[in-house]
Design brief:
- This is Cupin type-1 domain-containing protein.
- Keywords: Disulfide bond, Seed storage protein, Storage protein.
- The chain is mostly beta strands and 239 residues long.
- It has helices spanning 75-82, 86-94, 151-154; strands at residues 2-6, 12-16, 21-23, 30-34, 122-124, 132-134, 138-143, 157-163, 168-172, 180-194, 200-207, 211-214, 219-235.
- Strand 10 and strand 11 form a beta hairpin.
Amino acid sequence: GVAGVVLPEKDEKVIGIRKGDAIALPFGAVTWWYNKEDTELIVLFLGDTSKGHKAGSFTDFYLTGTNGIFTGFSSEFVSRAWDVDETTVKALVGSQSGKGIVKLDGSIKLPEPKKEDRDRLVYNCEEAPLDVDIKNGGRVVVLNTKNLPLVAEIGLGADLVKLDGGAMCSPGFSCDSALQVTYIVSGSGRVQVVGVDGKRVLETTVKAGQLFIVPRFFVVSKICDPDGMSWFSIITTPE
């Protein structure tokens, strides 16, 4: 698909997005997402919601549509802000009747992506050099400030792990007290999480589409089923 990204105090970037892309979006970024092809496009949003309008939920701040911010201002205020007449204001504010996700008319043309706009915004975890490569075991790609500097602003890092059938990711934890949010991308397997007091707090089977959290200082280990398993984790440290 295609994504438009406007970072604070920056010009809009229009990027082509594909399977495996990780995109760093700092607080306050304005975005639009467009599936220009006749295929399914799935975007997984993971982030810190502790400072949201409602803690624990993403704060979606719509500029347009039935719940857009300009629908709340009077036409006088909007016409003066945009320096247009009130008839134009009514067309601009009232012509978009959708909310959130909308189907575009075939005649509408959106900006085309620019290759250079991917720089410093996107890192493709499927195509990146491997940070860990264990024969018959698995592969790891780590996303941090070295390959995607913008994550320093966000305060989050990430990794993509792919285990071969029957392989194990041995027990590990983050030494700088980071917590992990892990989303199972494909396959299935078993996971165990143990707390600092040595007590097991989670033992379950996970499969594609499921997500679980590993709290700070807790230790996690996974053993995948014969078909293998891959997962994407965000970690509350950019390193």
